[in-house]
Amino acid sequence: MSLVPVEEAQARLLEGARPVAKREEIGLADLADRIAAVDLVARRTQPDFDASAMDGYAVRAADLGATPCDLVVVGESAAGGAYGRTVAAGEAVRIFTGAPVPQGADAVVIQENTERPSPEAVRILQPVDPGGHIRRAGNDFRTGAMLVPAGSRFRPASIALAASGGYPTVEVLRRPRVAIAATGDELVLPGQPVGPSQIVASNGYGIAALARAAGAEILDYGIVRDDEAAIGACLDRAAGEADVLVTIGGASVGDHDLIGPVLKAKGATLDFWKIAMRPGKPMMAGRLGFLRILGLPGNPASSLVSSELFVVPLVERLAGRPDRDRWVRGRLGVDLPANDHRAEFMRATLDQSESDGAMITPLGRQDSSLLSIFAEATALLYRPAGAPAARQGDECRFIPLG
Length: 402
Ligand SMILES: Nc1nc2c(c(=O)[nH]1)N[C@H]1C(S)=C(S)[C@@H](COP(=O)(O)OP(=O)(O)OC[C@H]3O[C@@H](n4cnc5c(N)ncnc54)[C@H](O)[C@@H]3O)O[C@H]1N2
Ligand code: MOO
Fold this sequence. Notes:
alpha/beta; Molybdopterin biosynthesis moea protein, domain 2; 7 helices; elongated; binds ligand LQZAQKY5
């Protein structure tokens, strides 16, 4: 079977992938980064009264023909406690920011432009135009105005806007459910005793963090043994509750690499297997009914690179987020030899201090088993398949790592 080019594999994976159709109603506290399922139209007007923009005195502008002049202070209007009567000629009302401007008053004088010659009187030192320092009713929005269109991703300001518009809860797209299963007889959970020839299952935690940031809800299936029945049961479980199943390990050609055989036995479609990339070659993608399956290679760097390139865009698409170009242009920090037929994604560091663009330098050791090197990397440097030798300073592309 020939290797599938990376771009082709990405395109085939996203073919027909649409945002999850199910919706749910959630509270404002959980709204960050969720996608609005319906248009949010204002249920109220903001502000729904003329409000003072400053601390000072509500006055009739016409009273201030010649300043300084003294007015009688007849009461107070505070935020949440209006002045109930009408302001008459020669009168002023002490007022605070956000408080309703009383009937009869048409301007606010800021308190810095006043003096209090006595408790009953205020001396206005400068005139003010009618409407001065007043926020008119509906200044922000009116009932019926479009606040957040369906399909938008909630940002801090739009969450606050939803609250202001009268929504205690909001209908959003349900997050895609991504089940993650680490396969392998050698694996133990973090914190458990590690016996001879065993290792700690680590990859799933990094992949879960990536998928969650891309908009997924994670279903953690823990460790699944290298056993066709166990992997089959995991597939059945995912088909019943998840949108995507990500398996880690068992994707290659060894006698204990069972993901491919189990997909076949279960009648799942295998969309593609083996990508022209390094690391991450043995990745496979398939489907069982509505479930999408990504079989990632077990080597730590391989599984994380595959997740950046395949899990993230798939989850973002299913979550209803817009497709985005994650590639950034930079310059090589070192000379590099010609590349072979597999695109290479090198763990690299990024120096943003250069004036002519970011400088990317691959880390010394690129072995796909090295998590310590991955954790040090701040970028994945892309070397296209068949790329000729490159010189320091040549343009290159990279994905910044979060
Ligand atoms: N004869 C061949 N052998 C291999 C080939 C090949 O083309 N022909 N490809 C190699 C490449 S490239 C990769 S990548 C690996 C991937 O193999 P698998 O996906 O089958 O992964 P495993 O064999 O199960 O595990 C590989 C390695 O990773 C460790 N691992 C597995 N799961 C986890 C986990 N959740 N957390 C941490 N580490 C994990 C596992 O213990 C192994 O050390 O195949 C090559 N072989
Ligand atoms: O593709 Mo493997 O991922 O080279 O180690």
